[in-house]
Amino acid sequence: MTPRAADRWAALAFALLVLGCWSFLLVRPQSTGFGDWQYFHHMWEAGREALLRHGEWPHWDPHHCGGITIWGNPQSQIFSPSFFLSLVIGTALASKVHTLVHLWLAAFGAYRFARLEARATPLAALGAGTVFGASGFFAWHFIGGHAAFAPFAFTPWLLLAWRRSARDLRHAVAVAAWMTLTLLEGGVYPFPYFVLLLAFDLLVRLRLRNAGALVRAGVAAAVLTALLGAVRLVPILGSLSAVPRSTELLQSRDLSSLAVSLLDVMPPPGWNDAFGWPEHAGQVGFVGLGLAALGLLGGRRRAPWLLGALTFATLTLGDLGPASPWALVHRLPIYDSLRVPSRFLVFVTFYLGILAALGLDAVTAAGRRLRPRMRPWLPAALVLALALDLTLSFVPIVRFWNGPRLHGERAPRFTLVSGAYLAEYASYPRRGVGSRQCYEPMFLPAVFGLWEGPAIQARLLDEEGKTVDPERGRVGEVDRTSRRVVFRVDLAEPATLRVNQRHQPGWRTDVGHILPRRGLLEVRLPAGGYDVTLHYEAEGADVAAGLGALGVLLALGLLVGTRPRRRREAASQGPMRSRPTGRK
Asked: Do 463 and 315 share a domain, yes or no?
């Protein structure tokens, strides 16, 4: 079988594996997901409403937390290809397609990486893809609604492009593309984790003779990522700089709990942790660990994969003291806002998958002593046992994807509501209402002074903060979209217009000036009768667009103007001249 044919069969096998394990998602296509999926359903719905109902690119989500930036939210996925699919088939079904595609990318990517970088045979590489794509990490995090963790599926593809970029600088464009896609898909954890992964791999491969090529590739990938990803990085950094988020180390664990995470799909009796079992799940099973142990017999081939598994396993242990790896990483900017170091299990499962592929090749080599008819069946039986061990164990938990359908009739006008928050939250954008409650505070402080009910969504206040007498001033709502609201005012004297929503940098007014007091959106208005339009645009959106366009131009220039190193060296030698034969 040719390598291309083997790859095609592997791609098909992993598609069947994913569909077989996660088919329950499609039994009830419009049912929503469990846990944090409600949060992501809400954001997708808010973006969908902005585009389809108002014809606006989603900058602002008025349906959450008294109003919140959606472009500047690090976990927003409004630039993800899956979000655009939701415009056609709806957010519930699109999120399921999003999940299935990423699971396939994880499995097939690990297969390709094992084939090309670990030099594993096609059958052994199937084991690598199964360990990574069918691991408990993806199963539990997807079931729990951690949609922002989906870009972890890019791990093998990113690392493959990274390793090739030193030999061919054009692959730095692929590195930047995967990193940018991670940002577009709200990869608040995958992106900084990927930076650590690439830095680790660079150190593993660093040699004096190739240092220059590695540094050039790293600089090119970093510059392109900064430019192409500016569309997300600029608004996100603006949001985080306004209200920084930092966390304590919070977590530490021992080797026994790490072993439990890798072996068990369900929490053992007596398990107790503040973040819950899904944050610790990383099952590769007894068969997977056994094959990875056999992979340690792979001689020098095992070294980088073993070192990777040990390094990131150490990081999962968390705070082991001031000099422990996680404590040191947690002191860095951005990383000081991250928590739950057990999420590094995703890289542990990846490296264990590569070791498992080497283990299967070791079994194949040992099987040469068997009868010829028996040789291919032994590794094939182990791959099948591995797949059954992983997939059958977590099939029952897939049934958590049985939340309520997105529902509700549209309200006559926008108001803030309460009651049955968790059951109704994802449907707020469709219903055209909002809430004072916050699913997660993220980087936002609490805001007081918002009101619920059908009353007009603005009030007029005098110099002392008291409500203006109706005979001295009136206000009425004229028009409202996702990020624009128009009020008609009639004032006998200057007053303050308090809008029933949160203020964040980016709000503009065409009359008067913004007063961002107490976190509420307030506008100081002059006397008179007129319409006042308030409009929100994420800060730095125009700068981000310009930087992105520059990044596209540089990427195209790099792809067109750069040749692989071997071709460049051959071209520099000029055409080969025929050797003289001595004949005239």
From this structure: no
